[in-house]
From TrEMBL:
Protein name: O-antigen ligase-related domain-containing protein
Topology versus the membrane: Multi-pass membrane protein
Main location: membrane
Keywords in alphabetical order: Membrane, Transmembrane, Transmembrane helix
Domain of life: Bacteria
Length: 446
């Protein structure tokens, strides 16, 4: 029995979407001095991406129908961004690290182009979100158990790291004199886990709201409860607040479909069910974890270490831009530049700037930053022109795209950490995969 190349690619994509968030990797030249931002490694997700690229190239080479190359307006600034990222490596303190980081950028831009082309063709949007949902549920369950134990579970085969509240550099916060470990899952950081969980929550929304059948189907809510509890236990302030804001924005955006609202006998009860379950869950968590919430809600500049470090990194980055505005300090080299200029910091404090726009301006230069911002603006404009939000599912993609860009204002993971980069480029690719003609789906008829 012959298995088509498209089916193989489809299964590779399913595995990729389920497993990309797990920190399964091989680190080159690993030793006690290993630093994430200056290390070289290969993930399981890299191997799957490579296999997808090879399959796509083979189809392109064998089939004339696949040899059409079409460029969109947003592609040109994206190519310019890649060029200036490469040029920035000439300014790098460690050229090998700069080249490695540039190759990673090329990989994920390639992933963006691949997914833009193949999503809705060899894999449906519904299946994409189902995979994201169940991958997130597994991560969420691990994160909940970590919080209960206040230690890792020993799941090294899934990429879980050693976690103890007393370890330097581990994400903790102080509650009544005790260090509390935030949930990591099998990811590098609680903020990454939070991003994975929000993506999974949107996967649940997508499949729950628009599934066939009638009624809210309360039995299918248990994955959502796992995701909400796990997201809460990451104590990732920006991502949690952005999720709540997104939940408010979606019905507001959807309100423009007045005929859709009036004719739908499915959506409104399901929205009410999700809202009610979310509200009850958050109120229960608020009561149980009130001291923890009170601690994390304190944004005092004098005592909040995370806030102080973010401000410090931003200031260092802006100062560096003044000194090297054209090509920056080299892609992937800010931490090394910080080590050179501030040699007395603790080892774990040599981190990237927690703002992707300042970080890109610092490492790649202002021209490269301009190309990157132009790419984002054109991408969102193309999405609006292609959809006009004519399909009630489109607000999901619009809000998700806005979320990943918003996260980049307060964290670096969308452009520095494997899982974060995949989330960033995956969401943008899902937006870019929208058809060029407006679509209106009748929810009553599936």
């Amino acid at each position: 029995m012959k298995i088509s190349l498209e089916k193989i690619e489809r299964w590779l994509l399913i595995i990729f979407l389920l497993a990309f968030s797990f920190q399964i990797r091989f680190i080159f030249d690993y030793d006690a001095s290993f630093i994430e931002w200056t290390g070289r490694f290969i993930y399981l997700s890299d191997l799957i991406i490579g296999a997808l690229f090879i399959s796509k190239f083979y189809r392109w080479w064998r089939l004339k129908s696949e040899r059409k190359l079409s460029f969109r307006p947003s592609d040109y600034p994206l190519i310019g961004f890649l060029i200036f990222a490469l040029l920035s490596t000439t300014q790098a303190i460690e050229g090998a690290i700069g080249l490695f980081r540039w190759l990673k950028l090329v990989e994920f831009v390639g992933l963006f182009w691949y997914l833009r082309s193949e999503v809705r063709k060899i894999i449906s949007l519904e299946l994409v979100f189902k995979c994201l949902l169940w991958g997130g549920v597994i991560q969420g369950a691990i994160g909940i158990l970590e919080y209960i134990r206040q230690a890792d579970l020993g799941l090294r085969f899934l990429g879980e790291t050693i976690l103890k509240p007393s370890m330097a550099g581990v994400a903790t916060f102080l509650v009544q004199g005790n260090l509390i470990l935030r949930s990591y899952g099998a990811t590098p950081h609680p903020n990454i886990l939070a991003g994975v969980l929000v993506l999974a929550i949107f996967g649940f929304y997508f499949n729950y709201l628009f599934r066939r059948g009638f009624g809210p189907n309360l039995k299918s809510l248990w994955p959502y409860l796992i995701l909400v509890v796990a997201l809460f236990l990451t104590f990732s302030r920006v991502i949690e607040l952005s999720w709540i804001l997104a939940g408010v924005l979606f019905p507001i955006i959807l309100y423009r479909f007045k005929k859709f609202w009036l004719s739908s006998f499915r959506l409104i009860p399901r929205l009410v069910t999700i809202f009610s379950v979310t509200l009850i869950a958050l109120l229960v968590l608020l009561v149980i974890f009130f001291p923890e919430i009170q601690s994390r809600a304190t944004f005092s500049g004098g005592t909040d270490q995370a806030l102080n470090l973010r401000l410090f990194y931003n200031q260092e980055g802006i100062s560096s831009i003044y000194l090297r505005p054209l090509f920056g300090v080299g892609i992937g080299n800010f931490s090394l530049s910080l080590l050179k200029n501030q040699p007395d910091l603790l080892a774990w404090q040599y981190q990237p700037i927690h703002n992707i726009f300042i970080l890109i301006g610092t490492e790649i230069g202002l021209i490269g930053l301009g190309f990157f911002i132009t790419f984002l603006i054109l991408l969102f404009r193309e999405f609006w022109r292609a959809t006009r939000l004519a399909d009630p599912r489109d607000p999901f993609l619009l809000i998700l795209g806005g979320l990943v860009v918003f996260w980049g204002l307060f964290d670096h993971f969308p452009v520095t950490i494997q899982q974060g980069m995949i989330i960033f480029w995956l969401v943008l690719a899902l937006m870019a995969s929208s058809k060029s003609e407006p679509r209106l789906i009748d929810i009553k008829n599936g």
